Amino acid sequence: MSSSWWRNAVIYQVYVRSFADSNGDGTGDINGIRSKLPYLAELGVTGLWVNPWYASPLRDGGYDVADYRDIEPSYGTLDDAKAMIAEAHDLGLRVLVDLVPNHTSSDHAWFQEAINAPVGDPSRSRYLIRDGRGPDGNEPPTNWKSIFGGSAWDQLDDGQWYLHLFDTTQPDLDWTNTEVQEEFKDIFRFWLEIGADGFRVDVAHGLAKDMDFPDEEISGELLQNAKTPNHPYWDRDDVHQYIRQWRAVLEEYDDRMMVAEAWVAPDRQPLYIRPDEYHQSFAFDFLESNWDKEELRGNIEAAIDSAGSVDNVPTWTLSNHDVVRHATRYGLPLGTNWRTWLLDGPHDILDADLGNRRARAAIMFMLALPGCVYLYQGEELGLPEVYDLPLEILDDPVWVMSGNTAKGRDGCRVPIPWSTSGPSFGFGEREGWLPQPDFFGALSAEAQAGVGGSMLEHYRSALALRSTHIPDSGDIDWADGPTSDTLTFSRPGGLTCWINFGSDDVELPEDAEILLASEPSFNRVLGTDGAVWFR
Ligand code: GLC
Asked: 511 CA to middle of ligand 1, Å?
């Protein structure tokens, strides 16, 4: 029997390394998460997604897995993980773990075996290891680029090349190899047996490659965002056979689910969430939307239609551990490329108050939409991107691999401030692995809890109201707004949401019963960038 709890869940993403440090080593850990589970339950989310916590050299924040069945020692032990899952369940919270099937760490036993074996050894066929081009084979097999920068191929001592679409320490697996397929079915089962409610699957539109290894057309920015289907390594039709294998494994258990990190065009999304594939796939076009009424509405409608075409609902998120936090994105002039702005600036074009105001409104329209919502740790505190981390401490491999032309993702991974003072504002007993700016104390959970109008209390109110006033299913009704600049929709049961994108104030109907407003001092008049729920 399977239920569909995930259809309207609110899942809180925990980036383990930066969430809470229980043992004072500067790194977040599983016991830190355990200590904050009551906070998450009180916030009003219904589950959490834990970023990779497996044994790892942490070259790419744990997305470089050395052992899929064990926990990274600096995060804790397998027993800690089991206890965390059980305690979350006791609080009514579901737990998703992050599965990374596209590549392993170069420290993984399989890769070590492969590179220590002679050319042609079967152990090499678990990865994509090929001869090079050119007279001596000293040129990479294709022109493919790593997403982090530079060639996607690295040469082994014996002259052959291995593919790594990400860091050089993240060799890509060969998914046509049945041993690879069987191993991952087993890894899924391992975590399902331990009690995981589901999986966030990394690089879900990767895995399958064009095994003829053609060159690709190189254009502009390096992104995972596959704009065209059947690219040499993104969004290939043959990826779906592997997804079906995993879904069959999940169906052996009750109530489990999986969500895809698939950066594909909206018209390709439905393929990933067919009834025998993923349950969910993030609507990344919504995340990437500018603060523009038509663009947002267009991307919302596209996501709803696309999911609806396979009888499913969309999966919304505004921030995650890979993108500039939305409180900062929304404070940049319309159309700014926030990825390049991080390094290139100018940083004084950022209007932090504007971003904060829009973030207060954004959570309201996101929570009112049909479908499931994912929050990223710290957004409930209104944390902005820390865009000015000193270059010499950057940890993200993007910084080095891009030849210092892209700053990477450290700025959204700065440790969470839990209290107003202390060496890391309550993150742990000493400074965290990345430094926090001084203003983090004022944004801490302690500073905001119980304070009317704070971002934290705003999130708590919105989440509480979502559970009582937003229907589990059903459509969205778009209506003409009071002005052409007001985005207006309502949901079955009578909740109406207005967001004012214009510069003129908008007055609410006289009989409107106000449920929540994004502006702390709201008095029936909706200002620029404000949102309101009423019925
Ligand atoms: C995904 C993860 C990202 C990671 C990459 C390689 O995009 O979200 O953090 O660097 O995959 O695993």
From this structure: 48
